[in-house]
Structure formats: structure tokens, C-alpha cells
Amino acid sequence: MKVLCVDDEIGIRKVITRMYSKDNEVYTAENGEVGLEVARAKRPNLILLDHDMPLMNGDIFYEHLCEDPRIRHIPIVAIGDFSADMLKKFPAHVAKPFDKPNLDLAIERALASKEPLI
What does the pLDDT look like over 53-89, one tens digit per residue? Predict the structure, then answer.
């Protein structure tokens, strides 16, 4: 499986890579702009998306993702502090700090969700 982690905190990106790179291809991006480029180029099966990032936050990333028919189907796990209205749009969410069991559950929920992103 291909996983994209979009988070401005290098520590989070390193932890995600360490946790999931054994059995998956893990790509990382430090902000939403780079994240969209990587999503379009690599077409991941899952996106782990932070909210508070420079240049393009998680809300704006989500809007751009939904506008692109090539990538709008990709499930997202929201990580961190999204508004309650935004959280309704994601199949799964995990708060920071998170641990692997809780993130694994959120990933399972996101991958099992058949709800289209809107």
C-alpha cells in the first residue's frame, strides 16, 4: 500500500515512516502544496493529513484534492486539530499525540469507508 503523510512536523513524518515503511511505500510532504504534488505523482492509497501547516493547511489541501478527479477518491485520516465541520468530511480522525494502535484503527476505518469525499 502507498501511504502519504502530509505534516509540517518532521518528527511526525519520521514516526509515520518508521511505523509503516516495513510493509508499505511511505511518502511524506511538509505542507499541503507539496502534498498535492506527491498525491498527483504517486497516487497513494491513503493520506494522513495534518491541519496546521504553512503555505497550505489541511482544509485547503482537502478542497484542492476534492477538485481533482484523479485523486479525490483517496481516503484521508485527519491528524490533529480540525474543526468539527471539517471532521465530518473525513472517514477517520486521530488527535495528536497519537499512538500506533489508535492510528491503525483510524486507518482501518478510512480504508473501509465507502463514503466519497465531498
Answer: 999 999 999 999 999 999 999 999 999 888 888 888 8
CATH of the domain spanning 2-112: 3.40.50.2300
Pairwise CA distance, residues 41 & 12, whole Å: 22
State pLDDT tens for residues 18-42. 999 999 999 999 999 999 999 999 9
Q: How many CA atoms lie within 13 A of 15 on its CB side?
A: 13
| Exposed/middle/buried for residue 10 (C-beta within 10 Å: 0-12, 13-18, 19+) | exposed
Q: Domain-by-domain residue ranges, the chain? A: 2-112
